[in-house]
Amino acid sequence: MGYYQEHPKFYISTDCIIFGYFDGKLQVLIRPREMQPGKGELSLMGGFVDDDESVDNAAKRTVKELTGLEDFYIEQVGAFGNVDRDPGERVVSICYFALIKAADYNSGLKAKFNAQWVDSKAVPPLYGDHNIMIEKAKKILQEKLAWSPLAFYLIPEKFTLTQLQMLFETIYGGALDKRNFRKKLNADNHILTTGEIDKTTSKRGASLFRFDFDGYFSDGVFKL
Description:
- By secondary structure, the protein is an alpha+beta fold.
- Helices cover 28% and strands 27% of the residues.
- The strands form two sheets. Strands 1, 2, 3, 4, 5, 6 and 7 form a seven-stranded mixed beta sheet that branches.
- A hairpin with a 2-residue loop joins strand 1 (11-22) and strand 2 (25-32).
- The protein is elongated.
- It starts with 10 loop residues before the first strand and ends in a 5-residue tail after the last helix.
């Protein structure tokens, strides 16, 4: 005999906001919805939670299946459970955002799922409350960017300080003072020089750096 029979049953789903950074923009991956209601409407990536998995694992599975990647950052945004949020059934969605290196994204899967990147500052109307989810995720990303290593999940493993500043400015939506920005970077011992030079933007070139994830996770919190 089961328990809680007197209580209503809800569906549980996950919706995943997959962020990538390229062309100087923070981009979001979306695709047409494959089921009714709302079939064909643009939507976030997501699906229902299986009986044998946690909501965290369901979100990770979704990102992996849709991008082909296993190495990515993922974090829960929150629960969305308005009574009328889904016209099909009573569905409570646990929303996550994931950060991927866009260059590593499997282009074959992009075509398979008819997915597309859109600028996070100009997201078209999406199914249900998905636009609200994106705005909440962007706020979390902005708040955590200054004291966590989230930026380094979005840019290539080797980067210039100019590229890093451009990423920060894109997410914050405004210019940062170059001198102050680099002063704070220089004070942190987790940003290491590679000894290599990037000459794609000028003859003189710019030094390439990398972020020391092992050192960060073993001995402190990165602050900027």
